Amino acid sequence: MDLNDLICKLQLSDYRVALSEGWEGAQASRPEELSFLKPEFLAEVGDWCSLPEEAVGAVTSAAQRIAAVPELAALAWYFHHQMYLNPAFRRAQIGSWPPNTYFESVLGEEAGMLYLLALVSGLPHVLSFHRDHELPEELSRAILADVNRFASQSREETGHWGLWGPDRLNWLIRHFQGDIYRLGRLQFEFGPFIGRLVVFRHTRTRKVLALAEDGVRYLADGRLWTEARDGPGSWTARLCVEPEKITGHVVTVLGHAQPKAVTLPAEEWVQVLAKGDPVLNIHIPPGSPMAHDACGDSFRWAEEFFPSHFPDRSFRAYCCDSWLLDTQLAEFLPPEANMARFQREMYLFQTIGSDENLMRPIYGQVRQFQPAPKNTSLQRALNEFLESGGVLRGDGGGSFILREDLDWGREVYRRRMADPRALEE
């Protein structure tokens, strides 16, 4: 299939550059028939991905339509080839692919099926990967069940099965590339540390201290600076690591940076975590409460699972970036709440968030109406906070817990963090 003809037929001129990357090589290797569009293959997909019969029927019908349209079949193969057969593929490429609206002229209500079919075309690849790493079948099914969760979300949002856009494909592809696994209540994903801080451990006391990354700008109260919330007294962190000493600004266990610098004797403090280091990122899928003991069980399972099945992929810490870690939650949640208890187990740091990022998952939408829903304890707590004059800050939320410090239920960092007042320069 000539790319120019496809672009003309589907009016994809804005995506010429994105689709030209690897197009010719993909089409040169394309088989006469695409096995992943056949009913028997999609029945197997339905089984492994926990899709209901209705969804399997819809996917099979859409696959037949796509196979009958040369341009769509060429696109389906291109997406498959890039994600599963091209060793140079980068997940970030998916973000430059066309949204579903470009396929509506041909597929109509089934526009979301093209990306869903491209995703599940990788089923043989992920199952082979799992077998190579000796994963039990139930774990394969547990992670692949996310396909049904996202396809069902699309049906709720649009009235039709599928994946509503490349963004959701970008998330689910990591399931099929063997980067993410569900172990009980939590999911764990291989990845780099993203926090804008450097973590040190005292060689004798084993206490942990995080220092702000050099060049990060903060507000006077120690929150991350953004143009949208600029104010007087903002300052820029400096971090200087020398043979004799380490000078920087403490980021407390609650995620706030201190404007007064501290000095650490270099012979007593060793760096244990910094941006880019390998970690396991934590994801908290919906569907059940964040029971504290269940989360602890997931961490303990992970400590056994990953060294056993992936001995070649080391990691230094567990990290999480989620609205559930927004430090402001502790201001209106009771201390026994699952989210509050989860936060107290971790060393918190800020990410760039917004009021919307916090309110949307709590209310299901941005709260622009009265009365707000009061169906959950979290909704009731936030309502009370706002109605009493509280103001959301949109701090965002990130956290880490080093593997050596994993002792779920002991709130290690609240007890063992070094006192920055004793280190002030």
Keywords:
4-stranded antiparallel beta sheet, 6-stranded mixed beta sheet, 40% helix, 425 residues, alpha+beta, globular, 2 domains
Can you characterise this structure?
The protein is α+β, with helices and mostly antiparallel strands and 425 residues long. It folds into two domains: 3-178, no CATH class; 182-353 and 394-425, no CATH class. The chain is built from 18 helices and 15 strands. A six-stranded mixed sheet has the order 1-2-12-13-15-14. A four-stranded antiparallel sheet has the order 9-4-3-11, with no helix packed on it. A three-stranded antiparallel sheet has the order 7-8-10, with no helix packed on it. A hairpin with a 5-residue loop joins β3 (197-202) and β4 (208-212). α4 runs antiparallel to α5 (53-68) and α8 (113-120) packs parallel to α12 (166-176). It is globular, with a radius of gyration of 24 Å. The termini are far apart. 36% of the residues are buried.
